[in-house]
Design the sequence.
Protein backbone atom coordinates (compact mmCIF):
# COMPACT_ATOMS: atom_id res chain seq x y z
CA UNK A 1 0.00 0.00 0.00
CA UNK A 2 2.91 2.37 0.60
CA UNK A 3 3.68 2.44 -3.11
CA UNK A 4 0.07 3.31 -3.89
CA UNK A 5 0.10 6.12 -1.32
CA UNK A 6 3.21 7.55 -2.95
CA UNK A 7 1.65 7.31 -6.41
CA UNK A 8 -1.36 9.30 -5.24
CA UNK A 9 0.88 11.95 -3.72
CA UNK A 10 2.91 12.23 -6.90
CA UNK A 11 -0.20 12.65 -9.04
CA UNK A 12 -1.77 15.24 -6.74
CA UNK A 13 1.42 17.27 -6.43
CA UNK A 14 2.10 17.13 -10.16
CA UNK A 15 -1.46 18.13 -11.09
CA UNK A 16 -1.29 21.07 -8.68
CA UNK A 17 2.17 22.17 -9.83
CA UNK A 18 1.17 22.23 -13.49
CA UNK A 19 -1.28 25.06 -12.82
CA UNK A 20 0.71 26.98 -10.21
CA UNK A 21 0.84 30.06 -12.42
CA UNK A 22 0.54 32.61 -9.64
CA UNK A 23 2.02 33.04 -6.18
CA UNK A 24 -1.40 32.42 -4.66
CA UNK A 25 -1.87 29.15 -6.54
CA UNK A 26 1.62 27.95 -5.74
CA UNK A 27 1.10 28.78 -2.06
CA UNK A 28 -2.17 26.84 -2.08
CA UNK A 29 -0.48 23.83 -3.65
CA UNK A 30 2.17 23.87 -0.90
CA UNK A 31 -0.25 24.45 1.97
CA UNK A 32 0.02 21.82 4.72
CA UNK A 33 -3.73 21.30 4.37
CA UNK A 34 -3.02 19.82 0.95
CA UNK A 35 -0.95 16.96 2.40
CA UNK A 36 -1.83 14.04 0.10
CA UNK A 37 -1.55 11.40 2.84
CA UNK A 38 -5.01 11.73 4.44
CA UNK A 39 -6.69 11.68 1.03
CA UNK A 40 -4.73 8.61 -0.04
CA UNK A 41 -5.65 6.85 3.20
CA UNK A 42 -9.34 7.62 2.74
CA UNK A 43 -9.32 6.39 -0.83
CA UNK A 44 -7.41 3.21 -0.03
CA UNK A 45 -9.86 2.42 2.76
CA UNK A 46 -12.69 2.74 0.25
CA UNK A 47 -10.95 0.52 -2.30
CA UNK A 48 -10.37 -2.13 0.41
CA UNK A 49 -14.01 -2.39 1.52
CA UNK A 50 -14.90 -6.02 2.32
CA UNK A 51 -17.74 -6.33 -0.18
CA UNK A 52 -15.38 -5.71 -3.11
CA UNK A 53 -13.98 -8.60 -5.09
CA UNK A 54 -12.89 -7.02 -8.39
CA UNK A 55 -12.96 -3.28 -7.66
CA UNK A 56 -10.08 -3.59 -5.20
CA UNK A 57 -6.62 -2.03 -4.79
CA UNK A 58 -5.38 -4.60 -7.31
CA UNK A 59 -7.72 -3.15 -9.94
CA UNK A 60 -6.67 0.38 -9.04
CA UNK A 61 -3.02 -0.61 -9.40
CA UNK A 62 -3.68 -2.22 -12.78
CA UNK A 63 -5.47 0.89 -14.07
CA UNK A 64 -2.65 3.14 -12.88
CA UNK A 65 -0.09 0.84 -14.53
CA UNK A 66 -2.02 0.96 -17.80
CA UNK A 67 -2.21 4.76 -17.60
CA UNK A 68 1.57 4.78 -17.29
CA UNK A 69 1.75 2.81 -20.53
CA UNK A 70 -0.66 5.20 -22.26
CA UNK A 71 0.57 8.43 -20.65
CA UNK A 72 2.04 9.90 -23.83
CA UNK A 73 -1.42 9.86 -25.39
CA UNK A 74 -3.06 11.95 -22.66
CA UNK A 75 -3.05 15.73 -22.65
CA UNK A 76 -2.92 15.71 -18.84
CA UNK A 77 -1.80 12.28 -17.55
CA UNK A 78 -1.60 13.34 -13.90
CA UNK A 79 -5.23 14.40 -13.86
CA UNK A 80 -6.09 11.11 -15.55
CA UNK A 81 -4.25 9.34 -12.72
CA UNK A 82 -6.30 11.24 -10.14
CA UNK A 83 -9.47 10.24 -11.99
CA UNK A 84 -8.37 6.61 -11.79
CA UNK A 85 -8.10 6.90 -8.01
CA UNK A 86 -11.63 8.26 -7.75
CA UNK A 87 -13.42 6.36 -10.54
CA UNK A 88 -14.56 3.48 -8.31
CA UNK A 89 -13.97 5.13 -4.94
CA UNK A 90 -17.69 4.81 -4.24
CA UNK A 91 -18.75 1.32 -5.23
CA UNK A 92 -21.86 -0.60 -4.30
CA UNK A 93 -22.81 -3.27 -6.85
CA UNK A 94 -26.48 -2.89 -5.94
CA UNK A 95 -26.50 0.85 -6.72
CA UNK A 96 -26.56 2.66 -10.06
CA UNK A 97 -25.15 6.03 -9.05
CA UNK A 98 -21.62 4.93 -8.13
CA UNK A 99 -19.87 7.02 -10.76
CA UNK A 100 -21.82 10.15 -9.89
CA UNK A 101 -21.10 9.73 -6.19
CA UNK A 102 -17.44 9.05 -6.96
CA UNK A 103 -17.25 12.20 -9.07
CA UNK A 104 -18.86 14.23 -6.29
CA UNK A 105 -16.32 12.81 -3.84
CA UNK A 106 -13.51 13.89 -6.18
CA UNK A 107 -14.95 17.39 -6.37
CA UNK A 108 -15.12 17.73 -2.59
CA UNK A 109 -11.80 16.11 -1.76
CA UNK A 110 -9.67 17.70 -4.46
CA UNK A 111 -11.11 21.15 -3.84
CA UNK A 112 -10.30 20.76 -0.16
CA UNK A 113 -6.81 19.55 -1.10
CA UNK A 114 -6.19 22.78 -2.98
CA UNK A 115 -6.26 21.49 -6.54
CA UNK A 116 -7.18 24.28 -8.97
CA UNK A 117 -10.82 24.32 -10.06
CA UNK A 118 -10.16 23.39 -13.73
CA UNK A 119 -8.26 20.28 -12.62
CA UNK A 120 -11.01 19.34 -10.18
CA UNK A 121 -13.62 19.71 -12.91
CA UNK A 122 -11.61 17.63 -15.36
CA UNK A 123 -11.07 14.87 -12.81
CA UNK A 124 -14.80 14.71 -12.08
CA UNK A 125 -15.64 14.74 -15.79
CA UNK A 126 -13.35 11.79 -16.39
CA UNK A 127 -14.87 9.85 -13.49
CA UNK A 128 -18.36 10.40 -14.92
CA UNK A 129 -17.12 9.24 -18.32
CA UNK A 130 -16.58 5.75 -16.93
CA UNK A 131 -20.36 5.27 -16.93
CA UNK A 132 -20.23 4.75 -20.70
CA UNK A 133 -16.53 4.38 -21.53
CA UNK A 134 -17.38 6.34 -24.68
CA UNK A 135 -15.07 9.38 -24.94
CA UNK A 136 -15.52 11.83 -27.77
CA UNK A 137 -13.02 11.76 -30.61
CA UNK A 138 -10.00 13.79 -29.60
CA UNK A 139 -10.69 13.50 -25.86
CA UNK A 140 -7.24 12.13 -25.17
CA UNK A 141 -7.64 12.20 -21.39
CA UNK A 142 -10.91 10.30 -21.64
CA UNK A 143 -9.49 7.84 -24.14
CA UNK A 144 -6.56 7.13 -21.84
CA UNK A 145 -8.68 6.54 -18.73
CA UNK A 146 -11.28 4.40 -20.51
CA UNK A 147 -8.68 2.25 -22.25
CA UNK A 148 -6.79 1.75 -18.98
CA UNK A 149 -10.00 0.74 -17.20
CA UNK A 150 -11.02 -1.72 -19.93
CA UNK A 151 -7.57 -3.24 -20.47
CA UNK A 152 -8.53 -6.17 -18.22
CA UNK A 153 -10.74 -7.38 -21.06
CA UNK A 154 -7.57 -8.24 -22.98
CA UNK A 155 -6.03 -10.29 -20.16
CA UNK A 156 -4.66 -13.78 -20.87
CA UNK A 157 -7.24 -16.56 -20.37
CA UNK A 158 -6.40 -17.24 -16.71
CA UNK A 159 -6.44 -13.55 -15.85
CA UNK A 160 -9.70 -13.02 -17.70
CA UNK A 161 -11.28 -16.00 -15.92
CA UNK A 162 -10.19 -14.56 -12.56
CA UNK A 163 -11.75 -11.22 -13.53
CA UNK A 164 -15.10 -12.79 -14.43
CA UNK A 165 -15.14 -14.84 -11.21
CA UNK A 166 -14.49 -11.70 -9.16
CA UNK A 167 -17.27 -9.82 -10.93
CA UNK A 168 -19.68 -12.69 -10.24
CA UNK A 169 -18.68 -12.67 -6.56
CA UNK A 170 -19.44 -8.96 -6.33
CA UNK A 171 -22.91 -9.71 -7.68
CA UNK A 172 -23.49 -12.77 -5.51
CA UNK A 173 -26.84 -11.33 -4.43
CA UNK A 174 -28.14 -11.64 -8.03
CA UNK A 175 -29.70 -15.02 -8.96
CA UNK A 176 -27.76 -17.01 -11.54
CA UNK A 177 -30.19 -16.64 -14.44
CA UNK A 178 -30.63 -12.92 -13.91
CA UNK A 179 -26.88 -12.48 -13.75
CA UNK A 180 -26.35 -14.48 -16.93
CA UNK A 181 -28.87 -12.36 -18.80
CA UNK A 182 -27.52 -9.08 -17.49
CA UNK A 183 -23.89 -9.97 -18.07
CA UNK A 184 -24.66 -11.22 -21.58
CA UNK A 185 -26.38 -7.93 -22.40
CA UNK A 186 -23.31 -5.99 -21.24
CA UNK A 187 -21.03 -8.16 -23.38
CA UNK A 188 -23.22 -7.71 -26.45
CA UNK A 189 -23.15 -3.95 -25.99
CA UNK A 190 -19.38 -4.00 -25.79
CA UNK A 191 -19.01 -6.24 -28.83
CA UNK A 192 -21.32 -3.96 -30.82
CA UNK A 193 -18.98 -1.00 -30.33
CA UNK A 194 -16.95 -0.10 -33.41
CA UNK A 195 -13.87 -0.17 -31.19
CA UNK A 196 -13.37 -1.12 -27.56
CA UNK A 197 -10.15 0.89 -27.33
CA UNK A 198 -9.49 4.42 -28.57
CA UNK A 199 -5.77 4.93 -28.04
CA UNK A 200 -3.33 3.70 -30.70
CA UNK A 201 -1.71 1.35 -28.19
CA UNK A 202 -5.06 0.00 -27.05
CA UNK A 203 -6.25 -0.67 -30.58
CA UNK A 204 -3.00 -2.34 -31.60
CA UNK A 205 -2.35 -4.34 -28.43
CA UNK A 206 -5.65 -5.06 -26.67
CA UNK A 207 -8.53 -4.95 -29.18
CA UNK A 208 -8.25 -8.44 -30.70
CA UNK A 209 -7.62 -10.24 -27.41
CA UNK A 210 -10.46 -8.40 -25.70
CA UNK A 211 -12.94 -9.27 -28.42
CA UNK A 212 -11.89 -12.91 -28.28
CA UNK A 213 -12.38 -12.99 -24.50
CA UNK A 214 -15.76 -11.28 -24.66
CA UNK A 215 -16.96 -13.57 -27.45
CA UNK A 216 -15.88 -16.68 -25.55
CA UNK A 217 -17.56 -15.52 -22.34
CA UNK A 218 -20.76 -14.64 -24.18
CA UNK A 219 -20.82 -18.08 -25.79
CA UNK A 220 -20.60 -19.69 -22.35
CA UNK A 221 -23.32 -17.48 -20.92
CA UNK A 222 -25.63 -18.32 -23.81
CA UNK A 223 -25.00 -22.06 -23.51
CA UNK A 224 -27.28 -24.39 -21.60
CA UNK A 225 -27.07 -23.53 -17.84
CA UNK A 226 -26.37 -27.17 -17.09
CA UNK A 227 -23.53 -27.40 -19.58
CA UNK A 228 -20.36 -28.60 -17.87
CA UNK A 229 -18.34 -26.06 -19.86
CA UNK A 230 -19.98 -23.11 -18.14
CA UNK A 231 -17.54 -20.68 -16.57
CA UNK A 232 -17.49 -19.61 -12.96
CA UNK A 233 -19.11 -16.30 -13.79
Sequence:
Amino acid sequence: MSELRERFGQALRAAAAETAESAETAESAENPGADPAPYAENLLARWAEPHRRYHTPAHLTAVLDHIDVLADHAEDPDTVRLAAWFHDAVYRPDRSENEERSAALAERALTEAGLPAPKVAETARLVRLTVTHDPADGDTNGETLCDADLAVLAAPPEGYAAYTRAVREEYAFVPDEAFRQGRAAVLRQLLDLPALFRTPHGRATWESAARANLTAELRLLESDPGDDTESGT
